[in-house]
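quick one
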Amino acid sequence: MAKVHVKKGDVVKVISGKDKGKKGKIIKVIPAEGKAIVEGVNMATMHRRPSAKLPQGGIIHKELPIYTSKLMPVCSKCQSATRVGHSVLSDGTKVRVCKKCGEVLDK
Ligand SMILES: [Zn+2]
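structure w/ zinc ion:
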């Protein structure tokens, strides 16, 4: 299984593809597919027939999973899309850190 460098709740920036430059929060990570669902990114338009849930039918917008290789975490401190470094805290906890400013990304 590919190691995923992003986690649910991370704010990420899209670095390639049609949504390049967009930022959003990760709603869900799908490690088995190496993909994640990001708020407002890779939106698909779906046409729905009327159903119990959606009596009018119509068009809904939904995020589709995107490869995590296209995503870079955005550091909350320096506000830039950054490479992730790894660090071990004094209590042995492994955390991800911003390679630019050293801010701990796992809180
Ligand atoms: Zn930073």
